[in-house]
């Protein structure tokens, strides 16, 4: 019995955490500290905070992976959720490891917008597209993150002649197409953008650079 007890403890999953980007939500964990824990299988359950019964996540029942996709199960984005994971090895089951409470609306990370740049000889037109959630409209298109939050686009210009690290904010607002005028021909400019949420004072990461030579 003692050996089983030791095995139970040594294969118990560690660091059970939700990771979420634009409401694409996965549960991550690390294997127990025993060397043989590498061969363990994992079982995932979830529930809304306050519910008494746990639901099995069928696609993550007896898996060898350390990740489970719970995007669909956490689609009520204002609700707080919990998840838990247990491991099994050689017929022995560990106790459950519990995640922290996770509320998608508060805790998902908002990604950067997509940026497209079109240039003429003295101006740059910047087209912006907000990141999209995994949730779909009736017609099948994915709902943008701007539907869930009051988000602003922030657009920065980098003049490569001056300093590659020096970003100047040239626009903040909700327009999806903006024009930056009176630029110098023959100069290489780069544009980066991010999403900004005034209410929670959060910013996304920067988009990838889109560069153009006027």
From TrEMBL:
The keyword Secreted applies. It holds the Pfam family Interfer-bind. It is found in: Secreted. Residues 108-212 form the Interferon/interleukin receptor domain. Keywords: Disulfide bond, Receptor, Repeat, Secreted, Signal. Transmembrane segments: none annotated. GO terms for cellular component: extracellular region; plasma membrane. The keyword Secreted applies. Residues 9-96 form the Fibronectin type-III domain. Its main location: secreted. InterPro entries: FN3_dom (IPR003961), FN3_sf (IPR036116), Ig-like_fold (IPR013783), Interferon/interleukin_rcp_dom (IPR015373), Type-II_Cytokine-TF_Rcpt (IPR050650). One of its GO terms (molecular function) is cytokine receptor activity. Receptor for IL22. Binds to IL22, prevents interaction with the functional IL-22R complex and blocks the activity of IL22 (in vitro). May play an important role as an IL22 antagonist in the regulation of inflammatory responses. Belongs to the type II cytokine receptor family. This is Interleukin-22 receptor subunit alpha-2. It comes from Aegithalos caudatus. The lineage of its organism: Eukaryota, Metazoa, Chordata, Craniata, Vertebrata. The gene is Il22ra2.
């Amino acid at each position: 019995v003692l050996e089983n007890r030791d095995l139970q403890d040594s294969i118990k999953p560690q660091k059970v955490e939700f990771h979420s980007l634009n409401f694409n939500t996965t549960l991550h964990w690390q294997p127990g500290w025993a060397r043989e824990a590498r061969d363990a299988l994992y079982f995932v359950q979830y529930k809304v905070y306050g519910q008494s019964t746990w639901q099995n996540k069928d696609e993550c029942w007896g898996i060898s992976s350390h990740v489970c996709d719970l995007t669909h199960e956490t689609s009520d984005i204002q609700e707080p959720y919990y998840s838990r994971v247990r491991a099994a090895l050689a017929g022995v089951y560990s106790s459950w490891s519990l995640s922290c409470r996770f509320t998608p609306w508060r805790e998902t990370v908002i990604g950067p917008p997509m940026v497209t740049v079109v240039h003429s000889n003295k101006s740059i037109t910047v087209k912006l597209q907000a990141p999209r959630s995994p949730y779909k409209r009736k017609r099948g298109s994915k709902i943008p993150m701007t539907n869930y939050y009051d988000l602003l686009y922030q657009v920065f210009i980098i003049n490569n002649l001056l300093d590659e690290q020096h970003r100047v904010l040239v626009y903040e607002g909700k327009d999806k197409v903006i024009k930056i005028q009176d630029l110098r021909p023959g100069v290489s400019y780069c544009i980066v953008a991010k999403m900004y949420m005034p209410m929670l004072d959060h910013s996304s990461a920067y988009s990838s650079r889109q560069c153009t030579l006027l």
